Amino acid sequence: MKNVGVIGGGTMGAGIAEVVARAGSTVRVVERDEAIDAAQQRIEKSLARAVKSGRLSDDDAKAALARITITSDLSTLADSELVVEAMPEIEELKVEYFTKLDEIVSPDAILATNTSSIPVIRLANATKHPERVLGMHFFNPVPVMALVEVVTTLKVDRAVVDKVATYARETLGKKTIESKDQAGFIVNALLIPYLTSAIRMFETGFASAEDIDEGMVSGCGHPMGPLRLCDTVGLDICLAVAESLFDEFGDPHYAPPVLLRRMVDAGYLGRKTGRGFYEY
Ligand code: NAI
Questions:
Q1: Whole-angstrom Cα distance, residue 27 to residue 164?
Q2: What is the pLDDT at residue 222?
Q3: Using H for helix, E for strand and C for coil, what is the string for 227-249?
């Protein structure tokens, strides 16, 4: 993959662009004009962190940065062999962009979405070539987390799935697992009910946020407690995934807690807004 496109330069898109550029590809990130500077800074800060921690040399960081261009012009993705979409979790927005992308890129380019909760087939069906559309679900922070879930649909070509999984493993250095196009895929279908159980425990006054988190860190050896993890993932993302699980399976066990909804309404989305279950 010499030319890779990324749509959205937020938390995930910036991380994906960084990882792809560090692996040697030329990356074009499509972002809204008013958010281009923020996306650039996100990438620069993350590369600087990698250099500071000794995970990356200064020269490699500079070379990776030089391979990334951020623009608001979608047509710059025309020669991409792979495009990874990481826009906000809004189905109409993603559908609109998949339809546009399908017209712009060559018919054998692969179109991937990083969605956490929208059925991938709905984005595939917005294109004339659904056989080249699949999910490439990265984890936050992308440069640090080892996993990519490769999400298949009922229409995707096996060769496309294999090509993307091989690229993620051999070029990006990630581990891959393959999931069907079901709400939550593998990881979130297991993780989100755990996180919402912790929110309910806190909501009912059963225990403090600190004690719930300490319980799982010191009692189970988890690197982070569930409420701090909600803050890290983003409460809006947790809510979107919980809603998609509830819609898909209809099991009350998946229903998002009222407190989660109200915190999202209040704009307490976790680390990214400076306040969630904790203050940052
Ligand atoms: P974010 O809100 O940090 O980033 C979204 C970016 O898209 C923003 O920079 C925004 O300016 C940009 N954008 C909005 N409209 C645009 C447009 N018309 N054209 C180009 N760019 C546009 O969101 P985040 O957290 O990066 O999530 C992105 C996707 O990744 C979502 O689908 C989410 O479900 C998924 N995801 C998120 C994870 C997380 O931990 N945050 C983990 C795995 C997947």
A1: 16
A2: 97
A3: HHHHHHHCHHHHHHHHHHHHHHH
Phi, psi of 115 (to 5 degrees): -50, 145
Angle, helices 235-249 vs 226-233, to 10°: value is 100
Residue 180 has what pLDDT? 98
In degrees to the nearest 10, what's the CA dihedral of 45, 10, 248, 181? -80
| Ligand 1 contact via 141 beta carbon (within 6 Å) | no
Q: What is the pLDDT of residues 220-234, one digit of tens each?
A: 999 999 999 999 999
**pLDDT of the residue at 216:** 98
Domains, the chain, ordered by start: 3-180 (3.40.50.720), 191-270 (1.10.1040.10)
Q: Report the pLDDT value the prediction gives residue 117, as an integer from 0 to 100.
A: 87
Quote the CA–CA distance of 52 and 39 in Å, as a whole number.
Answer: 20
Q: Based on DSSP, count helices (H) and strands (E) in the chain, helices before strands.
A: 11, 8
Mutate to test the pocket of ligand 1, among 33, 87, 136 (most ligand atoms within 8 A of CB): 87
Our answer on whether the CB atom of 123 is closer than 6 Å to any ligand 1 atom is no
Nearest to 197 by CA among 128, 275, 252, 116: 252
Q: CA dist 160 to 79, 156, 166, Å?
A: 18, 7, 10
Give yes or no for a contact between 76 and 83, defined as CB atoms under 8 angstroms apart: no
Task: Using 50 as the pLDDT threshold, list the residues of the chain that sit under it.
Answer: none
Element housing 151 (H / E): strand 147-151
Spell out the residues 6+ positions from residue 8 whose beta carbon is closer than 8 angstroms to its own: 29, 30, 31, 85, 86, 87, 88
What is the structure's pLDDT at 85? 98
Catalytic (active-site) positions: 116, 137, 149, 188
Average pLDDT, the chain: 97
Tokens of 130: 């659904």
- Give CA separation, 193 vs 141, 184, 232, 238, 251, in Å: 21, 10, 16, 10, 11
